[in-house]
Design brief:
It is a single chain. Helices cover 72% and strands 0% of the residues. The chain is an all-alpha fold. The protein folds into two domains: 15-50; 53-88, no CATH class. The longest helix is centred in the middle third of the chain and has 20 residues, at 32-51.
Length: 89
Amino acid sequence: MDNQRKIRKQIYLEPEQNRLVKQLSARKNNTEAEIIREAIDNYLLQHNQEQEDPLMELAAMVKSRITDGSTLHDEAIYVSKQVDDHEKK
């Protein structure tokens, strides 16, 4: 990722976040930007894993108001994935 051109983003930190980022930066001998990028990577990795969890997909079905999810949850989660995967081949 270091070889790619970076995109500038402007963010606002709470004063305590700023203090902790500066402190961690000095302790690890990294730039503040590196600390923030690492935090974003960790956050994205954690949330990406949640999206691939079938249980989280079931929870999403509830939010989308699927009314037969309790009786057809296996089909909704696993069969639709098999069809999608098969169609890609």
